[in-house]
Structure formats: C-alpha cells, structure tokens
Amino acid sequence: MAVLLTAQDLTTNFYTYEGVVRALDKFTLSIDHGCTFGLVGESGCGKSVTVRSMLRVIQSPGVIEGGRVLFSEQAGTDPIDLLELSEEEMEGIRGDSISMIFQEPNAALNPVLTIGYQVAESFLFHRTAQMSTRICEKIDGGVSFGLLTPLYRAMLSIAAKSPKSRFLKACSRIPLLRRWDTPVKDEAMRRAVDIIGKLGIANPEEIVTRYPHNLSGGMKQRIVIAIALACHPTLLIADEATSNLDVTVQAQILQLLNDLKKESISSILLITHDLGVVAETCEKVGVMYAGTLCETGKVEEVFSRPLHPYTQALLTSVPKFHQEGELQSIEGSVPNLVYPPSGCRFHPRCPKAMEQCSIEKPELKELRKGHFVACHYAEAQVGGLV
Amino acid sequence: MTAYIIRRLLFLVFVLFGVSILIFGLLSTFSPERRAAAYVTTPQQAENIPLIIKEYGLDKPIYVQYGKWIQQVAQGNLGWSLVAARPVAKAFWNYFPTTLELNLFASPLVVIVGIWLGTMSGVYRDSFFDHSTRIAAIVGWSLPTFLFALILLMIFYGYLDLFSPGILSSELALWVANNPDQFVRYTGMYSIDGLLNGRPDITLNALNHLVLPVLTQVIVVVALLMRVMRSGMIEEMSKDYVITAKAKGADFKTIYQKHAKRNALIPVITVAGQLVALSMEGSIAVEVVFNRQGMGWWLAESATQLDMPVLMSVCMFVGLVFVISNLIIDIMYAYVDPRIRLH
C-alpha cells in the first residue's frame, strides 16, 4: 500500500515558565492510503500534540523544532513536506486534504456563530472557486439571482479564477460591491444543510440557524464531523473524537466514521486511549509513550503478540469482563517532560529495563514483518527481523 | 423584547426613588444651620439663619422635608441653583449640552480606538506594537487627568497656538449672545447648532475648541477599554474553537476578526457602557482645565457650596443615566451573545 503521510523525527517543544517541555521527541509514524490507523497512549503522552504538529496548529508556547511531515495526496506522487509549506499553502491543505475532529465538541464550536455558518466556512475556504464557476454557469443558463445578477456574474467570474485575489478582498470593504459573494454564501449554506442531513441529523434546515448551545453533545460532535468532512478530506484525524460521549453515542459516531470512510475519505487517524475502540475499528495501531512511538504494526499482531514492555503492560491493564481480583496497573507515573528520562523514556517504569536502556534511546526497528518496535530488550529477545 | 424594555424602564422609577432617599438621608446628617448657611452669601444675612431655616422648612422631620421636596419635583420644579443663579432645570439644559457635546465626539472614539488597539495588541501579543500601546496606556491611565490636560494645553495653546480653551471664541460667543434671533440654540451644542443655523464657521470654531478636551478624554479613558479587550482577545485566541477554525483552513484575519473578536467583545460591552455612562456626568478635570462649564464643573461647584437642589437633581440624573445605559448594555449583550435571551 502506498504511504499517505509520514512523520519523521518530529520534535515539538513547549516553552513554559517551568522549563522546556519536550512533548515530542523524534516522533516517527506513517499512515497508508485507505487505512484506519489508531494511535493509543496514556493521557498526556503527546497524542494531540502529534496531530496538531502535523497540521501545524500548535498553539503558543508550542514550537515545532524539527523533523518532516511528508504528505502525498495521490498515491505514487512525490510527497510534499508540510513543515516547509508557507502558511498560505498550509491553509489550503487544512480542512481540504487533511481535516480534524476535536476532542471536546462543546469547546470546538464557536459559541457566537450559527451552526450553519461554521459548517459553511469549510466550503467558503476551499470551494469558492468551484461554487463561483457553477453559479456563473447557472447565470449563463438563464437563472436569475435578482437585481444584482450582472454584478454577481462579473465578480464571480473573477472569484472562479482566483478566489483569494486582492481585488475581491478590497471589494469586500465597499458597500453594495461587498455583496458579490451572496450567491456563494447561499450555496455554501445549502451544502452545509446537505452534509448535516447526511450525518443523520434530523431537520438540518432548522439546525443551521441554531447556535452550539442549542444542541446536545452528540449532535455537536456530528457538526464537528460535518465541518471536517465538508471537503472530502484524504486524511481525517479524529482526536479523541468519541472520548467525551456516552457509550451509545460513541458507537454511533464510530459507525458513522466507518461508513464515511468507505464512501468518501481515504484514511483515518484515530487518536484514543481506548484500546477496545482501536481493536474494533482500526487496521493498524501505534502505541505512544511520553512523546515517542514505541510500537506500531497491524492491530491483531500488536495486540496478540506485543513486543514492547509498555504495550504489554498497557494490554494487561485493560479491565476484562470476567476478570476477578485487582485491576493491573503500570507502576510509577508518566514522566515530567521538562526533565525526560535519559535513553528510553520508559526505562524508569520498565520491568525489563537493562543498563543500555538508560543510556541509549532505542530506534524504531522492524522486528517482525510490518511490526516495528523501539525497545532494546525486545530487540535482544527477537534478534532482528526473523 | 419590547416587554423586557418596558419592564426595565418601569424599574427605573424604583431606582430613582432609592437614589433620592439615599441622597436625602446623607444630606440630612448636616444640621439645619449648616444647610441654611449654604443660602447665606453676605455677613448680614448670617443673622437671618433662623429665618432661612423656617422658610425652607429645614427644622422639620426628614420625611416631611422629603415629602415636600418630592411634591415639588413631581410638579417639575427641581429647585433653585445657587451656583447657576437660575432654576435647576434651566441650568441643567445650560450645562448638560456642553458635556454631551464632548462625549458625542469622545465616546465613539474611545470605543473604536479602544477595541481596535486592544484587538491588535492581543492578537500580536508581545510584539513591539503590543508593548508600545501598553506602555502608552499605562501612562495615559496613571497620569492625573488635570496634569495631562495642562500639558496638552501648554503645548497646543501655549506654544503652537493651535487650539484654545473654552467653548467658542469670544467674538463669536458675543455675537451669539447678542443675536438670539439669528442664532437659535436648538441643541445647546455649538458644533451642531452652527450647522442648523447655516453658520459652518461657528461649527468649525466649536470643533477647534473640542480637539484638546476630546483628546484628553480619549487618552485617559481608552486605556481601560483597551486592556479589557486585549486580555479578552488573548483568552479567546487560546480557545479550542480557534484551533477548529484553523484546522478548517481559516486565515489568520478570519480567525481573529470573525471568530475570536465577537467572543472577546462580550466583557468589553460592559466596560464600554459603564465608561460612556460615567463620562455623561462630565469630567471635572477636563471641564475645569479647558474652561468648559458642563456637568462636571457644575457638580463640583455645587458640592463645595452645598447647593442641595443641584446635588439631588444631578444624583437623580446619574441614576437615570446608569439605569438606561445598563439597559442598553443588556440589549447589546443579547445581540452579541446568542446564549443570552432577554425575558
């Protein structure tokens, strides 16, 4: 399978008052076309920072210090490095080729803007040219948009060629002329109604006029998904998209994502701390610990034959239905990333730690076919690719 | 919405009643002699103090005095202003337009400049622009208004002779006073009356006299508004919905103008409303330094001379302004924040 997105040696630091938090330390990951990839790890291990770094939406005081994020939208084409693009080019990719669903539907929507506008924005940012062309064709075909039709025709033909031209921006400040984009906005709103309806929300025409506080948590999450799916992204990143929802809604949303993947999106990167969700929905999985990827491979392979001691500990600490006795947990706590442990970041908590572990950072190596592990112990045990 | 506004306006009556009782209570702590002394202007009259007390009913129980006063007020008689040497109601229409005129120009400037500066320094936090506006704001806020006004006056009037104090140049003021039939004072504000009477030269002259007081007012008041807007902007820019907008592909300007600004405006509305309401009382320092006899000047003079009818009336007026401005603030709240519904 062709590789869609690769993060290489991604390093992100947060410059806080307490010191430099080394949130991502040479993080490496790759996602294939058409694959559902699950990224799991404890809270605070840097899952969200990873995806936000990939999309370059890290907020201050976070800084991406190094690495590459290679993205090839069409299989087989030369990848582009997202970290080297200009901010403007990046704006064209966000929400169009790669989009994101957020953890907290309550916080992720703007409380003072209507649902309709917030969804329509996706179309306005990425489909203005396309919509303008359509509307021009309609006008040429004899459809009237009221008294201002000639004005619309003239302005939209410019927008169809370069939707972000300076001329149009200047016109948006002049009374009357600023209304050139009314048909585009109406069209974007129609599309918003469409996509909200497709996501299984009843009465989308009414919902678009509402505000986030009028909606339930599950509905809000669907709206957030609608925003992300609006432009049919190649990669959808779901950052703990279901963590704050109750189990039934969670199941519905996961089902929805699964259905959508078949229809429109090529790949999903699912971030979660719920191993059950990963086992059920993902093909591949990556296990993260303290800003590094420790193990990655096919879900069945990693979950049935985990090689990294952290993955093993994580899997034994999952509560089981028929289990009696105490719940297993991992000794110790997540390290303070201002002073991360030397060598392997897991070594202070690792039952299998060796001398080498505190000195040298293990590299991600393919120990079984398609199964990568970053661990000195596992390497010594398995002894390289068999 | 209409029902809400009507209910709030009915509420106004109770507020004014409360304010009047408070002020009356405070003033009743002065002995009748002290209050009677306020009516004395010459040493000879000092002998008449008992007479004055009797005449004004100052020795009667407080509720009788209050009843008498409220009776007069209900008939539209607010009393006689010693300071202005005319009835309070008449004097009010003499002083209030001067203050209103100043605020008519200063308040929009304060709001627009404050919001713009606050937005920009919040968005470009820790930039050179941010630091310089913040320093300027601290200086403007902490310098005493009268000192600031004097410095401006010294530079622009003393050295440059550009803008002079007062309301109108003496020749024009004399002409207006001598020709009441040719120059009708519709609003009491020269800058507007000049246009209404077809005398643009008077408007220009009045505007020229307004520059320095408006500038002082704006610089002193804008600092607070700017700081509230800035901190609101910083807070909103770190919210999750900003990341959603960014992940949608929004450009930086859309993010702060469309997404963050409206949220940041919510606390600013309160502060701006209160500031504008507060300046309707007139700034004493600005009015004294620039020799513009408005509400602030009148209130200060009346307070020092214990001009009771004026103090009562002005306090009632301030109560009125605050109730109305709070109503406007609430309505604007509901307009900006869809989560608020007025019932």
Automatic annotation (TrEMBL), chain A:
InterPro entries: AAA+_ATPase (IPR003593), ABC_Ni/Peptide_Import (IPR050388), ABC_transporter-like_ATP-bd (IPR003439), ABC_transporter-like_CS (IPR017871), Oligopep_ABC_C (IPR013563), P-loop_NTPase (IPR027417)
Organism the protein comes from: Halodesulfovibrio spirochaetisodalis
Taxonomic classification: Bacteria, Pseudomonadati, Thermodesulfobacteriota, Desulfovibrionia, Desulfovibrionales
Family the UniProt entry places it in: Belongs to the ABC transporter superfamily.
PROSITE patterns attached to this UniProt entry: ABC_TRANSPORTER_1, ABC_TRANSPORTER_2
Domain annotation ABC transporter: ranges: 5-315
Gene3D superfamilies: P-loop containing nucleotide triphosphate hydrolases
PANTHER family: ATPASE AAA-TYPE CORE DOMAIN-CONTAINING PROTEIN, OLIGOPEPTIDE TRANSPORT ATP-BINDING PROTEIN APPD
Name of the protein in its database record: ABC transporter domain-containing protein
Domain of life: Bacteria
From TrEMBL, chain B:
Keyword Metal-binding carried by entry: no
ABC transmembrane type-1 domain ranges (all copies): 96-333
Compartmental location: Cell membrane
GO biological process: transmembrane transport
Membrane topology: Multi-pass membrane protein
Keyword annotations of the record: Cell membrane, Membrane, Transmembrane, Transmembrane helix, Transport
Ranges annotated as spanning the membrane: 9-30, 102-123, 135-160, 210-229, 264-290, 310-336
GO cellular component: plasma membrane
Pfam family, one: BPD_transp_1_N
Keyword match Oxidoreductase: no
Record-stated family: Belongs to the binding-protein-dependent transport system permease family.
PANTHER family given in the database record: DIPEPTIDE TRANSPORT SYSTEM PERMEASE PROTEIN DPPB-RELATED
Protein name (database record): Peptide ABC transporter permease
